[in-house]
Amino acid sequence: MIKKKFIKVIALCMLPMMLTGCWDSTEVNSRSVILELAIDKNTDYKYDPERLLDGQPVYTISYTIPDFGKLSGTDSLAKDVETNLTSQSATIATSIADIELRSKNSVSFSHVKALFLGEDLLKDPKLFKATLDALSRDMLIARNVPLLAVNGEASTTTEIENNEQPILGLYIMDYFNNKERATSFFKKQLVGTYIKEMEDTGVSTLPVFHVDQTDKEEMKGQIDISGGAVIHNNELAGYLTKEEVRGQLLVEGKVRNSPVVVVYEDNLLTYQIKDEKSKIKFKDTPEGPTCLIEMDVKGSISEYLTESGTNLTKDGTIEEIKTLLAEEIITQVGVGIDKSKEMNIDFLGIGQAMYRKHPKMWAKYKPGWLREIYQNMPISIGVNVDIQNTGIEE
Predict the structure, then answer these.
(1) Which residues contact 215 (CB under 8 A, 6 or more apart)?
(2) How crowded is the C-beta side of 294, counted as CA atoms within 13 Å?
C-alpha cells in the first residue's frame, strides 16, 4: 500500500515537468523567427574563380526578424519592431548559415507569413525553380505561405513603413485572410498551390506587390496588391492588369463582394456581386472545339440615384437592368480572355477544364493546344444575373 502511494507521489511530481518546457535543445528565445522572406536574383553576380562554390553570391535574400518584446498583439503600432538581415549567397541553405553566423540565435521558418519574389528571379526559370525546391524540400516553409511577385527588387519590401501594421508579414496574412474583402482585382496564391499548378499545367499566376517608386511623402507606407504575374514553366511571361485579373476570377467563379457599374436612364447604377459561380462547357465540332462559359451571379443594387423618380420595381425595369449588368460582366470577362489569347498562355484554366470534363477530347487537342487550337477556339459567355435586393422599400 505504501509502495503504491509512493509511486503516485512520484508520478504527480513528474507531471508538471511533462506539461511544461521544451524537449529539444533550443529554447524559443534562442530562435530568430522569420516572418517575411524577400528573395532576389543578384543581377551583379559573375562567377569568381577565386571563390569557393558556396561563396558565390547568386542570391540576395532579405530576412525579417521581429522583436516580440516590443509587440503587443498583431495590431501593435510600436516603432522599430523588426530587424532586417540581408545575405548574398550561393543557395538558400548557405544564406541561412550566413545569417546564423551574424546572430546568437538559430533561424526558424515555422511562422513565415509571406514570401516575396523579385522580378529578375522570376525571369530566371532555372533559379526560380531551384528556389522553390529548396524552400519546399523537407517542409522548410509551410505549403500555405502566400507567394507574391514584386515589380522590381523584392528586398525593397523591407524598407516599407506601414502605418497599419509595422510587421509586413502579419499585414499580408491579415490582408489575405480577410473573408469580407472584395475578391476582384488579385488572385491569392500559396506555395503548395503554385507547385501543384506547375506540375499539372505549367501555368500559374501570382498576385503583384507594387512597390511605390515615388518620393511623395503622402504615398509613403501605402501598399498596393493588384494585378497578376503570369508564370509559364517557372518563368515570368508577363503581367496582368487588375481588370484582366478580374476577368480571370470571373471565369473561375471566384468574384465576391465586388461592384459592377452600368448606366441606366443616364444615371450610374451600382450592383454589388455577393456570389458568383461559373461552368465551362465544350462541344467538339468538325471545325474544332467550342467553349461556353456559363455564369450565375447573385447580388443587390447598392447605389442608384435619379431625379426622374425612376421606379426600379415596375414591370420590365429589373429585366432591363439585368440585361445591362450581364452585358457589362461579359465585357469584363472578355478582357481576361483577350489577354490570355494575346499572350497565348491559358492562365484561365480552359484546357484544364477540358481535361477534367472530357479527357478524350483533351487528348485529341492537347498536342496543338497552344500552337493553334486555343487561339482559334470560339469562346462564348452566358451570364444569368439575380438581383436579390433593389435597396428600395417595396
Answers:
(1) none
(2) 4
